[in-house]
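User: My collaborator sent over this chain with a note saying "see what the structure looks like." That's all I know about it. Can you take a look?
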Amino acid sequence: MRILVADDEALVRYGLVSVLRDILSDPPIIIEAANGRQLVEQVRDSRPHIGFVDIRMPKMEGLEAIAQASRHAPNTLWVVLTGHADFGYAQTALKLGVEDFILKPVDPAELKTLMDRLKLKVHARQRMGNRELEAKVAAVLGDTTSPGFDPYFEKPRFWQAAMVVWDSLLADDELARRRREFAGSVVARLDTEDEFSGCAVSMKNGALLIVLSMPAGGMAMDRVIDLWHRRIAALRAETADLCGDAVGDTWLLTRVVQDAEELFGEVDDLDRDAVLRFVRHPGVLMEYGDFCGRGRSQRFRPVAEILEDLRTARDFGTEADFHGLTHRLLNSVDVLTDEAFVDRGPAWYARYVLPIRGTPPESLEDLARRIHDESHVVFTADRDESDAASFDSLAARAVDVMERRFRESIGIADVAEELGVSPNYLSTLFKKETGVSFTRRLTGLRLEASRRLLSRPDANIGEVARSLGYQSGRHFTRLFKEEYGRTPSEWIAERRK
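Assistant: Without extra context I'll predict from the sequence alone. Here is the result:
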């Protein structure tokens, strides 16, 4: 916890800092200021959780300094230090949202009671900010709104995101269980963080998106970059035991940006380029610059895409499809010369994606040759004989879940989690069985229900959209018009003629 102590008397600062260190179990970070201008500068740079401020200070009085500093750190809790029982000061302080007054010299017992209350409020604000961020990000990922439509995203803020994707030979229900534990652990850690707002939200493809956000202004971008990169690396280390040796978790990191539209654009880039993890540093933290753009990693995309197709063919295709892909892989690998670039990719792929017997492959060429030579064994290894029998029932169960929950803001990851399977598995199986994508079926259920709701005499288009899980009326209107050839208002007008 960061605490600011601002008083022009050095002895007063020393005394208060000493008492704070004595009464707080976790050593706080103490920032000191000797006048009002220093206070504003320190707050702009450090964003303290709690500030103790003397009313009478040189260069800028305490209450004016609080008013200016609050523009940079709106969540800081302020306590006024005073030896003056002045009603006028109290009125001004209350308007500024000051939490309390404390008389000098400070009584340790009184200060401890105050700090216990303020710490609870600091943590409550952290959780509240995280839940707000989570709701906004989930709305964008659920395609129910756009950052351009929501004033929340127009505020000047720093943004960064990490997309976590998993690869494993575990059964779908076990992998889903580990992913739930992982997400819960990340959220718990973010809720105790105090440098920024943070959330973890499931994407439609089953990946987990961790988003960090902080009001821009004051703290320099290079400091934010350093702070967040260290925190992402620490998060990954702290949660490594939850994945275990049976799961390869790859973290794909965006840049730090100041525009939410740009952030979600980069998230789309991560989603598209995540396939490169099969050949380039899989199972670790990958920086945005490692694989996006026109760097040499893009030369490996055709091979990476074939490796992804091999996994899909093994799970859902025929052996002929699988064997044909092994030929394509051999031909594609032959034209690559920069084998050192792929690092641990082949060994990782053989461990978490396709099971290869014996020693781990040492190169892409070795991986391609062994997959080709052992095509039949790799294709049949650990295949679940009940897949065909469970195929129809799983698709039907997914429809049952959709029909029960289509009014919620859900995606395929939510349904897959309830059924205990991976989102990719459910997506591929669902379309193969039903002939339509999961998203198309869900949209159809919602639009069919919308016509019933819009038929009511008191129908309100915005309320109907929200009742069906759409936070953006514009998005709902666009989908409705694409399906029925007219907007909801036009459809209502025609029925009332």
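A starting point for your reply to your collaborator: The CA atoms of residues 15 and 106 lie 8 Å apart.
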